Amino acid sequence: MTLSLSGVSRAFGGVRAVDDATFTVADGEVHGLIGPNGAGKTTLLNLISGLLQPTDGTIELDGRRIDRLPPHRIAALGISRTYQNIRLFAGLSAADNVVVGQHLRRHAPFWRRLLLLPAARREERAAREAAEAGLARVGLRERARLQAFSLSYGEQRRVEIARALASQPRLLVLDEPTAGMNPGEAASVGRLVREVAKEGRAVLLIEHNVRLVMELCDRITVLNFGKVIARGTPQEIGKDPAVVAAYLGDGT
Ligand SMILES: Nc1ncnc2c1ncn2[C@@H]1O[C@H](COP(=O)(O)OP(=O)(O)O)[C@@H](O)[C@H]1O
Ligand SMILES: [Mg+2]
């Protein structure tokens, strides 16, 4: 799997939220996307996942253009994501929220599931067991039956990660996965991200916790005012004067 962005721009009226971004993300890589608030990070993820279309440039997955495809097609090609503003079904259980994420991989058509024919019912049960295993993986085995709204913020974020992983993505895209988490929770998300990469999946991650980014990422791309101002290993990024000036030096 290679995700490749080339000269990608997106304007909102006069604002160039993303301006001529070029970078690649490869299998097994944890790729950090950092930059100050308003730098264009979320917009870039929205372009990759198809919620927005670029005004310029191309986005390719394994050499195939995906920047004109709708989100569900891009998801079916193996890109799944979480959101900066959590998007769970508040009244559904954690497990049911994760089951929703598996639909991409399931075979029984909707009408068969509706009629609960035996094959569909078996699949339903398998989906539920897989969802519970996925929740256990993010440390929420005991919380699987609870409604999403009754979970803490950090737990809701972990349900989102479990949901994104449920479709066995080739590229997992995370928008500030540790926001609102305590240090212990954040560290466990860090470990999970490394595990996911070890399975050969790629991870593209927006993260504000600089220490976590430095520990976790193989490569980092830095955005400022929509532009890529630096890219490299954590060591290279940490020494880059433009990055220090724009981001690392401002106390965040
Ligand atoms: N839907 C939108 N309409 C208009 N402006 C937007 C929209 N989404 C983002 N922007 C603007 O684009 C810029 C980048 O925003 P965003 O991608 O959310 O940054 P980040 O995630 O790095 O904080 C900001 O100036 C923001 O106000
Ligand atoms: Mg954002």
Please tell me about this protein's structure.
- With 252 residues, the chain is of the alpha/beta class.
- The chain has two domains: 1-78 and 169-252, Rossmann fold; 87-168, 3-Layer(aba) Sandwich (Rossmann fold), CATH 3.40.50.300.
- It has ten helices and ten strands.
- A hairpin with a 2-residue loop joins strand 4 (56-61) and strand 5.
- Helix 3 (94-102) packs across helix 5.
- The longest helix is centred in the middle third of the chain and has 20 residues, at 118-137.
- The relative contact order is 0.18.
- The mean pLDDT is 92.
- The site of magnesium ion has 3 residues, from helix 1.
CATH fold label of the largest domain:
Rossmann fold
Output the structural class: alpha/beta
H/E topology pattern: EEEHEEHEHHHHEHEHEEHH
How is the biggest beta sheet arranged?
Answer: 6 strands, mixed
Count of all domains? 2
Roughly how much helix do the residues carry, as a percent range? Answer: 25-40%
Q: Descriptors for this entry?
A:
Rossmann fold, 2 domains, globular, 6-stranded mixed beta sheet, binds magnesium ion, 4-stranded antiparallel beta sheet, alpha/beta, binds adenosine-5'-diphosphate
Secondary structure layout plus pairing:
Elements: E1 2-12, E2 15-26, E3 30-34, H1 41-48, E4 56-61, E5 64-65, H2 71-76, E6 79-81, H3 94-102, H4 110-115, H5 118-137, H6 153-166, E7 171-175, H7 183-198, E8 202-206, H8 210-216, E9 219-224, E10 227-232, H9 234-239, H10 241-246
Parallel strand pairs: 3-8, 3-9, 6-7, 7-8
Antiparallel strand pairs: 1-2, 1-4, 4-5, 9-10
